[in-house]
Amino acid sequence: MLSYRHSFHAGNHADVVKHIVQSLILDALKQKETPFVYHDTHSGVGRYDLTHEWSEKTGEYKQGIARIWQQADIPAEVQSYLDAVAQLNNGDTLRYYPGSPRVARAQIREQDRMVLTELHPSDFPLLEQEFHRDRQVKIFKEDGFSRLKASLPPKERRGLVLIDPPYELAREYRDVVTAIAQSHKRWATGIYAIWYPVVNRCDIEDMLEGLQGLGIRKILQIELGVSPDTTERGMTASGMIVINPPWKLESQMQTVLPFLKQAIAPATGHFKVEWVVPE
User: Fold this and answer.
1) Domain 6-277 CATH assignment equals 3.40.50.150
2) Residues tagged active-site
3) I need a surface site. Which of 50, 59, 222, 235 has the fewest CB within 10 A?
Protein backbone atom coordinates (compact mmCIF):
# COMPACT_ATOMS: atom_id res chain seq x y z
CA MET A 1 0.00 0.00 0.00
CA LEU A 2 1.65 3.21 -1.20
CA SER A 3 -1.01 5.89 -0.98
CA TYR A 4 0.61 8.05 1.73
CA ARG A 5 2.02 11.39 0.54
CA HIS A 6 3.85 13.46 3.11
CA SER A 7 3.30 16.67 1.12
CA PHE A 8 -0.07 17.04 2.84
CA HIS A 9 1.59 17.05 6.28
CA ALA A 10 5.05 18.57 5.76
CA GLY A 11 6.10 21.01 8.45
CA ASN A 12 3.38 20.04 10.92
CA HIS A 13 3.95 19.68 14.67
CA ALA A 14 5.05 16.06 14.24
CA ASP A 15 7.73 17.06 11.72
CA VAL A 16 8.97 19.77 14.05
CA VAL A 17 9.55 17.31 16.89
CA LYS A 18 11.02 14.64 14.63
CA HIS A 19 13.47 16.96 12.92
CA ILE A 20 14.60 18.71 16.09
CA VAL A 21 15.46 15.34 17.63
CA GLN A 22 17.19 14.32 14.41
CA SER A 23 19.23 17.52 14.36
CA LEU A 24 20.30 17.17 17.99
CA ILE A 25 21.48 13.61 17.40
CA LEU A 26 23.48 14.69 14.35
CA ASP A 27 24.94 17.58 16.36
CA ALA A 28 26.14 15.03 18.91
CA LEU A 29 27.67 12.78 16.25
CA LYS A 30 29.60 15.75 14.88
CA GLN A 31 31.39 16.21 18.19
CA LYS A 32 33.93 13.60 17.01
CA GLU A 33 35.95 13.85 13.80
CA THR A 34 35.47 10.20 12.85
CA PRO A 35 32.90 9.70 10.07
CA PHE A 36 29.34 8.58 10.60
CA VAL A 37 26.50 7.31 8.40
CA TYR A 38 22.95 8.61 8.28
CA HIS A 39 20.42 6.00 7.14
CA ASP A 40 16.82 7.01 6.34
CA THR A 41 14.32 4.17 5.84
CA HIS A 42 11.40 6.25 4.51
CA SER A 43 12.91 9.32 2.91
CA GLY A 44 10.08 11.01 1.02
CA VAL A 45 11.04 13.62 -1.58
CA GLY A 46 13.61 15.60 0.38
CA ARG A 47 11.93 19.01 0.30
CA TYR A 48 8.34 20.20 0.28
CA ASP A 49 6.78 23.29 -1.26
CA LEU A 50 4.47 24.78 1.33
CA THR A 51 2.69 26.80 -1.37
CA HIS A 52 1.67 23.59 -3.16
CA GLU A 53 -2.06 22.93 -3.17
CA TRP A 54 -1.56 19.79 -1.05
CA SER A 55 0.12 21.74 1.74
CA GLU A 56 -2.36 24.57 1.48
CA LYS A 57 -5.26 22.13 1.53
CA THR A 58 -4.45 20.93 5.04
CA GLY A 59 -2.50 23.96 6.27
CA GLU A 60 -0.81 21.73 8.85
CA TYR A 61 2.49 23.61 8.60
CA LYS A 62 0.73 26.71 9.95
CA GLN A 63 0.33 24.87 13.26
CA GLY A 64 3.91 23.62 13.15
CA ILE A 65 7.00 25.23 11.64
CA ALA A 66 5.17 28.52 11.02
CA ARG A 67 4.63 28.90 14.78
CA ILE A 68 8.37 28.96 15.51
CA TRP A 69 9.84 30.23 12.23
CA GLN A 70 11.52 33.58 12.89
CA GLN A 71 10.22 33.60 16.46
CA ALA A 72 12.26 35.48 19.04
CA ASP A 73 13.80 33.74 22.05
CA ILE A 74 14.35 30.39 20.36
CA PRO A 75 16.17 27.84 22.57
CA ALA A 76 19.72 27.21 21.41
CA GLU A 77 18.85 23.52 21.03
CA VAL A 78 16.53 24.35 18.11
CA GLN A 79 19.05 26.36 16.09
CA SER A 80 20.53 23.56 13.95
CA TYR A 81 17.03 22.54 12.90
CA LEU A 82 16.04 26.09 12.01
CA ASP A 83 19.30 26.50 10.08
CA ALA A 84 18.30 23.53 7.92
CA VAL A 85 14.94 25.18 7.21
CA ALA A 86 16.62 28.51 6.46
CA GLN A 87 18.95 26.91 3.90
CA LEU A 88 15.96 26.24 1.63
CA ASN A 89 14.35 29.66 2.02
CA ASN A 90 15.20 33.27 1.21
CA GLY A 91 15.07 35.75 4.06
CA ASP A 92 11.91 35.74 6.14
CA THR A 93 9.78 33.97 3.53
CA LEU A 94 8.84 30.39 4.47
CA ARG A 95 8.14 28.49 1.26
CA TYR A 96 10.08 25.24 1.44
CA TYR A 97 10.27 22.71 4.24
CA PRO A 98 13.11 20.17 4.47
CA GLY A 99 12.25 16.53 4.82
CA SER A 100 14.53 14.40 6.97
CA PRO A 101 17.09 13.86 4.14
CA ARG A 102 17.51 17.63 3.73
CA VAL A 103 17.74 18.12 7.49
CA ALA A 104 20.56 15.57 7.52
CA ARG A 105 22.29 16.98 4.44
CA ALA A 106 22.49 20.37 6.10
CA GLN A 107 24.63 18.83 8.85
CA ILE A 108 26.79 16.06 7.44
CA ARG A 109 30.44 16.78 6.80
CA GLU A 110 32.78 15.76 3.98
CA GLN A 111 33.72 12.53 5.75
CA ASP A 112 30.11 11.46 6.38
CA ARG A 113 27.58 9.81 4.08
CA MET A 114 23.85 9.25 3.68
CA VAL A 115 21.78 6.23 2.65
CA LEU A 116 18.23 7.03 1.55
CA THR A 117 15.43 4.63 0.64
CA GLU A 118 12.07 5.45 -0.89
CA LEU A 119 9.66 3.00 -2.51
CA HIS A 120 6.85 5.31 -3.63
CA PRO A 121 6.89 5.49 -7.47
CA SER A 122 6.11 9.20 -7.52
CA ASP A 123 8.37 10.25 -4.64
CA PHE A 124 11.48 8.31 -5.64
CA PRO A 125 12.32 10.31 -8.81
CA LEU A 126 11.83 13.57 -6.90
CA LEU A 127 14.23 12.34 -4.22
CA GLU A 128 16.75 11.38 -6.91
CA GLN A 129 16.45 14.81 -8.47
CA GLU A 130 16.92 16.51 -5.11
CA PHE A 131 20.32 14.83 -4.58
CA HIS A 132 21.42 14.56 -8.20
CA ARG A 133 25.20 13.99 -8.45
CA ASP A 134 25.67 14.29 -4.69
CA ARG A 135 28.49 11.83 -4.08
CA GLN A 136 27.81 11.61 -0.36
CA VAL A 137 24.27 10.36 -0.89
CA LYS A 138 23.19 6.89 -2.04
CA ILE A 139 19.51 6.45 -2.94
CA PHE A 140 17.66 3.15 -3.28
CA LYS A 141 14.20 2.40 -4.60
CA GLU A 142 13.67 -0.44 -2.16
CA ASP A 143 11.73 -1.38 0.91
CA GLY A 144 13.32 0.64 3.69
CA PHE A 145 13.57 -2.21 6.18
CA SER A 146 15.09 -4.58 3.61
CA ARG A 147 17.75 -2.04 2.65
CA LEU A 148 18.51 -1.36 6.30
CA LYS A 149 19.04 -5.07 6.97
CA ALA A 150 21.35 -5.32 3.96
CA SER A 151 23.36 -2.23 4.95
CA LEU A 152 24.28 -3.19 8.50
CA PRO A 153 26.79 -3.13 9.98
CA PRO A 154 28.09 -0.05 8.17
CA LYS A 155 31.78 0.55 7.50
CA GLU A 156 31.53 3.47 9.90
CA ARG A 157 31.20 2.51 13.52
CA ARG A 158 28.94 5.47 14.29
CA GLY A 159 25.70 6.73 12.87
CA LEU A 160 21.97 7.37 13.00
CA VAL A 161 19.13 5.33 11.56
CA LEU A 162 15.87 7.26 11.21
CA ILE A 163 12.80 5.03 10.97
CA ASP A 164 9.55 6.82 10.15
CA PRO A 165 7.10 4.69 8.17
CA PRO A 166 3.66 6.13 7.36
CA TYR A 167 1.91 3.59 9.60
CA GLU A 168 -0.83 3.13 7.00
CA LEU A 169 -1.17 -0.48 8.09
CA ALA A 170 -1.40 -1.82 11.65
CA ARG A 171 1.40 -4.30 10.99
CA GLU A 172 3.90 -1.46 10.49
CA TYR A 173 4.17 -1.04 14.26
CA ARG A 174 5.22 -4.69 14.48
CA ASP A 175 7.51 -4.23 11.47
CA VAL A 176 9.39 -1.54 13.39
CA VAL A 177 10.01 -3.87 16.33
CA THR A 178 11.21 -6.62 13.97
CA ALA A 179 13.52 -4.17 12.17
CA ILE A 180 15.06 -3.03 15.45
CA ALA A 181 15.55 -6.62 16.61
CA GLN A 182 17.39 -7.50 13.38
CA SER A 183 19.34 -4.26 13.16
CA HIS A 184 20.53 -4.17 16.76
CA LYS A 185 22.00 -7.67 16.40
CA ARG A 186 24.06 -6.42 13.45
CA TRP A 187 24.94 -2.99 14.82
CA ALA A 188 24.41 -2.64 18.54
CA THR A 189 26.24 0.70 18.85
CA GLY A 190 24.16 2.58 16.28
CA ILE A 191 21.62 5.22 17.24
CA TYR A 192 18.08 4.34 16.16
CA ALA A 193 15.38 7.03 16.14
CA ILE A 194 11.82 5.80 15.58
CA TRP A 195 9.12 8.34 14.80
CA TYR A 196 5.53 7.49 15.72
CA PRO A 197 2.11 9.17 15.45
CA VAL A 198 -0.46 8.87 18.22
CA VAL A 199 -3.72 8.04 16.47
CA ASN A 200 -4.55 4.98 18.54
CA ARG A 201 -2.63 4.97 21.83
CA CYS A 202 -2.87 1.20 22.03
CA ASP A 203 -0.66 0.85 18.94
CA ILE A 204 2.10 2.84 20.63
CA GLU A 205 1.82 0.88 23.85
CA ASP A 206 2.06 -2.38 21.91
CA MET A 207 5.15 -1.15 20.04
CA LEU A 208 6.82 -0.03 23.28
CA GLU A 209 6.05 -3.39 24.86
CA GLY A 210 7.60 -5.12 21.87
CA LEU A 211 10.75 -3.01 22.09
CA GLN A 212 11.03 -3.65 25.84
CA GLY A 213 10.88 -7.37 25.12
CA LEU A 214 14.01 -7.23 22.95
CA GLY A 215 16.31 -6.91 25.92
CA ILE A 216 17.91 -3.71 24.59
CA ARG A 217 19.06 -1.07 27.06
CA LYS A 218 18.93 2.74 26.75
CA ILE A 219 15.55 3.42 25.09
CA LEU A 220 14.26 6.99 25.50
CA GLN A 221 10.75 8.19 24.64
CA ILE A 222 10.11 11.81 23.60
CA GLU A 223 6.56 12.98 22.89
CA LEU A 224 4.67 16.19 22.14
CA GLY A 225 0.86 16.22 22.16
CA VAL A 226 -1.31 19.00 20.83
CA SER A 227 -4.61 17.68 22.20
CA PRO A 228 -5.81 14.90 24.52
CA ASP A 229 -5.99 11.35 23.20
CA THR A 230 -9.30 10.63 21.50
CA THR A 231 -11.17 7.73 19.97
CA GLU A 232 -11.94 9.90 16.96
CA ARG A 233 -9.66 9.69 13.94
CA GLY A 234 -6.76 12.10 13.92
CA MET A 235 -3.22 12.50 15.24
CA THR A 236 -3.27 14.01 18.72
CA ALA A 237 0.44 13.62 19.44
CA SER A 238 3.67 12.26 18.03
CA GLY A 239 7.03 11.30 19.33
CA MET A 240 10.41 9.70 18.92
CA ILE A 241 11.72 6.53 20.51
CA VAL A 242 15.51 6.73 20.56
CA ILE A 243 17.76 3.76 21.16
CA ASN A 244 21.29 4.63 22.31
CA PRO A 245 20.51 8.36 22.54
CA PRO A 246 23.36 10.86 22.98
CA TRP A 247 23.78 11.60 26.67
CA LYS A 248 22.58 15.20 26.36
CA LEU A 249 19.39 14.43 24.44
CA GLU A 250 17.17 13.87 27.48
CA SER A 251 18.00 17.22 29.06
CA GLN A 252 17.92 19.02 25.70
CA MET A 253 14.38 17.87 25.01
CA GLN A 254 13.31 18.79 28.53
CA THR A 255 14.20 22.33 27.47
CA VAL A 256 12.76 22.14 23.95
CA LEU A 257 9.37 20.54 24.63
CA PRO A 258 8.00 23.20 27.00
CA PHE A 259 8.93 25.80 24.39
CA LEU A 260 7.16 23.84 21.63
CA LYS A 261 4.07 23.29 23.76
CA GLN A 262 3.78 27.00 24.44
CA ALA A 263 4.39 27.93 20.80
CA ILE A 264 2.20 25.28 19.15
CA ALA A 265 -0.52 24.24 21.61
CA PRO A 266 -0.41 26.40 24.76
CA ALA A 267 -3.89 25.46 25.98
CA THR A 268 -4.15 21.77 25.13
CA GLY A 269 -0.57 20.63 24.66
CA HIS A 270 1.35 18.08 26.73
CA PHE A 271 4.74 16.44 26.56
CA LYS A 272 6.98 13.85 28.15
CA VAL A 273 10.57 12.69 28.15
CA GLU A 274 11.04 9.38 29.89
CA TRP A 275 13.08 6.20 29.77
CA VAL A 276 11.30 3.16 28.39
CA VAL A 277 14.36 1.12 29.29
CA PRO A 278 17.18 2.78 31.26
CA GLU A 279 20.87 2.12 30.77
Assistant:
1) yes
2) 164
3) 59
